[in-house]
Amino acid sequence: VQLQAFGGGLVQSGGSLRLSCAASGFTFSSYWMYWVRQAPGKQRELVASITGVGDTNYPDSVKGRFTASRDNAKNTVYLQMNSLKPEDTGVYYCMVSNYWGQGTLVTVSS
Q: What is the C-alpha separation between 104 and 8, in angstroms, rounded?
C-alpha cells in the first residue's frame, strides 16, 4: 500500500487549500479513506472519512468547512478546505486501514 498526500502550503486565515492523496497497492474503491491531521504537540485528529461510494463524515471542528471527495477511477482522494483557521495548521495524512501515507504540511497564518 502506498499513499502520497500533497497540496499543502502556507495560506492566510480564511483561505482555501485542496489536498490530494494518490493511492496504490489495494482495491481503492472498496475501502473507506480517511484524512487525519496532527498539529504540533497534539494528538492526531480525524478530520474526514469517506466511504467507497463517497459518503462522508466530519467532526464538528471542520464540518461545513472541509469536504472530502474521491475519484475511484484515479485512485485519488481529495480534501477541500475552506475558511481555514490557524488551528487547522498541521501535517495532513491520508489513511486506509492501518496504513498511513506521507503527510503534507498545512500552515494557516493569522
A: 5
Q: Are 24 and 2 in contact (CB under 8 A)?
A: yes
| pLDDT computed for residue 28 by the predictor | 97
The backbone torsions φ and ψ at residue 74, rounded to the nearest 5 degrees and listed phi first, read -105, 5
Given this model, what pLDDT does residue 101 score?
Answer: 86
Three-state DSSP class for residue 72: coil
Write out the three cell numbers for 38. 496532527
- CA 52, distance to chain mean position in Å, is 15
User: In this structure, are residues 28 and 75 in contact, taking their beta carbons and an 8 Å threshold?
Assistant: yes
What CA–CA distance (Å, rounded) separates 10 from 105? 8
